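User: Could you write out the 3D structure of this protein bound to FE2/S2 (inorganic) cluster? I've included everything you need below.
Assistant: Certainly. Input first, then the structure.
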Amino acid sequence: MPLLSSLFDAPSRWTALDPVAARAKDVADRLLPGGSVRALLHGRPAGHPAHPALAQLPIGTSVSALLLDAVATVTPGGAALEAPARGLAAVSVAAVAPTALAGWADYVDLHPDQQRTAIVHAAGNALAAALWTASLFSRRHGRLLRTAGTSVAGAAGALGGHLAYRWAAGPNHAEHLVHLAGDGKEFSDLGPLDDLPEGRPALRRIGDAPLCVLRRGGQVLALTDTCTHLGAALHEGEVKGTGAATTITCPWHGSEFRFADGDVLDGPATAPQPTVETKVADGRVLARVVGPPL
Ligand code: FES
C-alpha cells in the first residue's frame, strides 16, 4: 500500500482514541443545538456538506498569509507585509469556530473507525488554530508561528480529505445506484403487486440497484434503498405520513426522505435520495430509477 495512504489510514485503527471519541460524541449530542441549527451545520439547506465548504476560508487565508510571509522574507521592505499577513491569520482564527462546529455535527454519526481519524484531524486543526492565535500576540515570532500553524493545518486538512475520500465520510452514498439501475429509460419488472407486504417497506432490485418499495393498497411508492448519508438500508426504516407526503426514516441516524421527490426533510443527510418512478400493470409492479432530484 502507498506509504502516504498507510500513514493516513493508521488513526482509524488507534482504538486507544475510543474513550476520547465517545466523549466528543456525548458532548456534541448535549451541546450542539438540534432542529434548523443542526441542519445548517450539516449543510442540509444548501444540499451540500457545510464543513468542507467552510474549511475553504481558513485554508485560503492561512495559505495566503504563508505566501505573503514568503514574499516578505525575500523582498527588501518585506516588513510592510507583516500587517496584512497578521490580518489573514486573524481571519483564519475567526473561521475556525464555525468550521469546527460543522465538522463536529457531522462527526457525531460517523462509524468508530472514521471517528478515530476525525479526532486526529480535529486535534491537528486545534493545534493549528492555537499556533495562528499565538502568532497574533508575538512580535518576534509571528511569521514562524503562522508558518507552523499552516503546516499543521495542511497535514490535518489532508487527513480530513483522506477521511472523506478514502473512508467515505461525507460523500453521497447513493449516487452510483442511478448507474447500476441502467439508463432509466425502461421500466423493470419488480414482480407481482400481491407479493409486496401492505404498508411495510420491502427490498426489491433493478439489476444491482436495491430499491425500498412501499405498497399502500393499489399504489406503490419507491426510492433507491441505500441511504445517501452513510449507506444504511432504508427499507429497514420507519414509514411516516400518507400520499405525497409519505416519507421513510433511515434506521441508522434518522435522515428522513420523501418518496415523492427524494428530498431530505430531517437528519444528517445532505444529498436527496435518487427517486424511483413506479406503475402497476396487469398486477405487476414496474419501476425505473429516475435519477437524483435536480
Ligand atoms: S445512514 Fe445515516 S441517516 Fe442513513
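Residues 109, 227, 229-232, 250, 252-255, 267-269 surround FE2/S2 (inorganic) cluster (CB under 6 Å).
User: Perfect, thank you.
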